[in-house]
Amino acid sequence: MKPKYFMGLLVLMVAIVGLVLLNKELNQKKILEMPVTVQTVEEQSLLVVDEQQQVYRVPTENRVSGTYREGDKLVIYYEGEVLETHRAQFSHVISIKQQR
Prior knowledge:
This protein is α+β, with helices and mostly antiparallel strands. It is 25% helix and 42% strand.
């Protein structure tokens, strides 16, 4: 194999490996957490308050809302953005854990 083709092939392989690693890094989702206090229990959501007194609506559609009470301390685990709607909402809640 001629050195010119070998170098071109080597550069191409390095570029492919770099793109695969970059894509893998971009696809890894970062899970965030936020400690909150339950302000209001609604039928399919909770209104919670963070440490800066910002109010958020947290959907509880796959959870039993009767298990939460006003004043409960929770940790919301989420990924993605917090939507800037009236009552900010988490774009994707992964889980809700009660603090003990």
